[in-house]
Design a protein that fits this description.
Blueprint (H helix, E strand, L loop, with lengths): L6 H4 L9 H27 L5 H29 L9 H39 L5
């Protein structure tokens, strides 16, 4: 556990192959991300109503988790075989940072953009019912 806080552990190119437990944990984590990404793709199908903004939000979350899951699986396989550049542990740090940045953009969309667009849609629908068709 002490190695996790050492920069030499994360940024070396002469790493040992992943242990069997570490390999299974990382593989399970990234397969979980990919599974969540696929599951989020189908949620708007089962939800009643046609909310375009909810569909776009779920599509963004789905793409994020699916892509991070697939990239993580590939780099986990590289790390298991101790391939020098692609199996380096700093890739997992970059994947984690990329995940948090991407989720930040999605939450910005969900918390700032979606309420404004819903207000615009509601305003348009209020005006539309008084206009002749």
């Amino acid at each position: 556990m002490q190695n996790l806080f050492s920069p030499a552990y994360w940024f070396t190119l002469r790493q040992l192959p992943l242990s069997a437990e570490g390999f299974l944990i990382l593989l399970g984590l990234f397969f979980g991300f990919a599974f969540v990404g696929v599951a989020l793709r189908f949620i708007p199908i089962f939800v009643k109503g046609k909310d375009v903004l909810f569909y776009r939000m779920m599509r963004k979350f789905s793409a994020c988790f699916l892509i991070v899951g697939i990239i993580g699986i590939v780099f986990t396989l590289f790390a298991k075989n101790a391939i020098r550049i692609f199996g380096a542990r700093f890739w997992f740090l970059l994947i984690g940072m990329g995940l948090f940045v991407w989720l930040g953009y999605i939450f910005n969309f969900a918390l700032r953009v979606v309420p404004k667009r819903r207000a615009q849609i509601n305003e348009y629908n209020k005006r539309k019912k008084y206009l002749p068709s």
